[in-house]
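Working notes for the structural subgroup meeting. M.R. asked for a predicted model of this chain before we commit to crystallization trials. I am recording the input and output together here so anyone reviewing the notebook later can reproduce the run.

Input as submitted:
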Amino acid sequence: MNATPEVLRVALALAAAGVPVLPLRAGKVPFGNCPSCKNSACGGRPNMKNAGPCRCAAPCHAWAAATTNPHVLTSPAWAPAWREAAAVAYHPGGAGLTVVDLDNAAAVAWARENLPATTTVSTTRGEHWIYRGTMQSANAVRPGVDLKSAMAYARWLGSGTGATAALPDAVRALAVREPATVRRAAQPLTVAAPATGGECRHRTPAYLERGIAMAEECIAEARSAVHITVYRTFLAVLSTHGRCGCLTDIHTARLFTAAQAKGETARHCADAWANARAALGM
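Returned structure, recorded in token form:
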């Protein structure tokens, strides 16, 4: 097989480790559908609940082509793609992983302030933070941040550094859309402190202050979808600090003030806060 030796070698090594892989063209894009599948002539994509391989002989249907089968990867049908391949991609969801794709320095700084440390891989413009666990994928969940897990692919850029942490609620919360209606009546804004006292058990007071300040900044920078931005910001704050007893009415008032400065009503702020609490089972 006249393939690019290094690209295929990497793909086979990943497949042997249980990571579903596929080739990428220049520009970090997958190969186009095979002639039989162009314009959905095949009747649509394969079962989207699982990783590939799809039923096509050639690499097809983007992430759904990802496979761990070495016989498929080295088959004659895949040979043309490997000859042109510029890189290897993988299906994070198929490997039981979630990639937080941080596209710039500001996004990386946000992650360092708000997310638990995990395996980190350097990219051209930022970093990939890789967590153990799967979730729905979502793009542009906040400035410079995409989530790649189920039904998505990510470029393989090496094994990175650091131990892989479990997927935190703070990442899951980024992909949650605000419910159309309040699922239960608004509750008092103060989060009750645990029996051990009001001090945050896993972060310093300075961490909370930075988190609130960054939440205010995130809301202030929203240029569209302000409702959703406010809800996701409330959700992220509550998922990180809501069970620690460290949030006070002063903190929530700051968040509400930032939201109202963007045109949100006090009623919507209260509803978004209640929806976020309900989503987290609080």
